[in-house]
Design a protein that fits this description.
Elements (H helix, E strand, L loop, with lengths): L5 H5 L9 H11 L7 H5 L8 H8 L7 H16 L7 H14 L5 H19 L4 H13 L5 H15 L4 H27 L1
Helix pairs in contact: 4-10, 5-6, 5-8, 5-9, 6-7, 6-9, 7-9, 8-9, 8-10
Length: 195
């Protein structure tokens, strides 16, 4: 399993480096071990490191194999689609296409066609999805790594657009839901890495 040293991790530019308190906290945690795997980071107590920060730290090819990052994005997208009543078949097809692409069964061009269709579906779905579902579905797109975000984005891009329109009360509820979704995603990734 890949690992990173504390000094290498600082090179990622975590926001904790922006404050003296954050730097002290990061150093206190980082100095506990010589090298950190993604599982080590995901296993940190939630009281010490949020699920959002854990995901930010590990969703990168330096710590997780790219094929796993892509599969994780697919799973996040599937979870987001569960929140949408009658998801567009093009979104489901995009996830299936991503998995075929991972197996070498379709070309980059065929994946791009599926991605474009899913983007069209996501745009159309933005007008039909509920505010809560849109906000929760956006979590998958924002949490997926750059390398793996295409599938998650395809499934939930329209949902994230509409989340900005939520009322203050709905925004607070959506934020709570996104925290819970991130915790679920961190647990899902931990399980994938341990398999």
């Amino acid at each position: 399993m890949k690992s990173v040293t504390y000094e290498e991790f600082k090179g990622y530019g975590p926001c904790w480096l922006e404050t003296s308190e954050g730097r002290r906290k990061l150093e206190r945690i980082g100095r506990r071990r010589e090298g950190w795997t993604a599982v080590d980071i995901l296993d940190l107590p939630d009281s010490e490191v949020s699920a959002e920060d854990k995901l930010w730290a590990v969703l990168r090819p330096e710590l997780v194999e790219e094929v796993t990052l892509h599969e994780f994005a697919c799973r996040c997208a599937e979870e987001a689609l569960k929140l949408v009543k009658n998801p567009d078949p093009r979104s489901i097809a995009a996830i299936k296409a991503k998995r075929k692409w991972l197996k070498g069964e379709i070309s980059d061009e065929e994946l791009a066609v599926a991605w474009d269709a899913a983007n069209d579906a996501a745009s159309a779905a933005a007008w039909d999805a509920s505010d809560a579902a849109r906000a929760a579905a956006s979590v998958a797109a924002w949490d997926a790594s750059d390398a793996a975000s295409a599938a998650a984005w395809d499934a939930s891009a329209a949902a994230s657009v509409a989340a900005w329109d939520a009322s203050d009360a709905a925004s607070a509820a959506a934020w709570d839901a996104s925290d819970a979704a991130r915790a679920t995603q961190a647990a899902m990734l931990r399980q994938m890495l341990k398999e």
